């Protein structure tokens, strides 16, 4: 190998650029580390990346990957100048923190010469301070330069059999173990691999491949396993995690990014980079690196609301304010003190329907966004599920076809001793044709808490203020007034007015499910709206053509039946 000199490399870069029209386009995005640096990606080529039949360089098998990174807006450079062939000598300059700190990301394709302890420390410090590293390994035993070390051992920091891999214990010679994972000493093969978990780096990725590679043992539970093989019970094939202010991704097979070209201009028969969704995955890694870090990129969800509340379910919605979250968690409580995680969702989630809730129960809820072990919570809101309607004591008391059709209205009365939650309920108007068939039902959404002895008035097309002026009444504070905006109207056909909950069950008393006749140009006031012992009474017999309206009040006749 040749010595690495800065002057020589700069000359070669410019010479190469002029020969190949290599455009060094700077990214417009701000680099996420605390210091301001240019958007450059560094490939390692100082640890025997060209040993044996490998050529994991930006001029060889990884040239298309390098080109794709340039298309994302980055300058691509390499550290070292490994040459193909046998008899290689480790004469490249060692990687240092002072070098790495000038780069946005550092890609390490399958090394075959171990990193010194100083190099390991530099890489760990680089990630901790906000850098991004893409570790690419291979299967155990892939010692291409016959120096006694394969990539699995090099990244782990120790030779096979030295320590127990699947142990939470830390070892003094741990390398990537300090980041929270180790490579398992195995050799797996599967094409395609389809067990893909939700993560930014798997966006639009449904299958990848491993052509003899290794898997990972996760020491830290904050690391995300994102791709798993089904041919082994070992750990994940691909992982993603954070450490300090930085990020890392690790893949267990170098063949996944090989485009089949070599630095000497020849080609080989393998070109895994173009297989399955391998290429999309590689670009996703760089994009994810450029999302905000765990400490900067997540913001607490806001605008948390609840809708479609019924007896056992409710729909939650919130705003996604983060750019780099791994997902969302929903927490429920019935005492506003002890919150239990109900569900965990993937990134970009903004809604969720809670099911299997208890009826007539007040729930307190919050939504959190998380990234690794960093989590930020929304404010807490509460809602109360509907109570089951079993006593059927919500009564239709009045149907009025006013002279001015805008003021047509119907009136319901809550004769129970409890409030009734109308949120999620609907007023349904059924009408019969002359042949007895039904028109399409008209539905009007209801809302609010109808208090005991309170009234629900649904007007055709009137505001509450105009309604009160027209009829010369002042509605009580226990009255819910709803303007149907011309959805509800009264005509000469037989009509039926019922209230249904979100499950479609009628919740007012059973008798109002029958049809009324001769409503047009009439005021229909229900007299015996309490079941006075006449189980078989016909609803028409309960109604009287009345001489005046009594909006928001009971008539004297109705009061006479109050029990």
UniProtKB/TrEMBL annotation:
Pfam families reported in the protein's UniProt record: fn3 (PF00041), LTD (PF00932)
Keyword Cell wall biogenesis/degradation assigned: no
Region forming the signal peptide: 1-23
Keywords on record: Signal
CDD domains with a match to the protein in the record: FN3
Domain Fibronectin type-III: 300-388
Protein name: Fibronectin type-III domain-containing protein
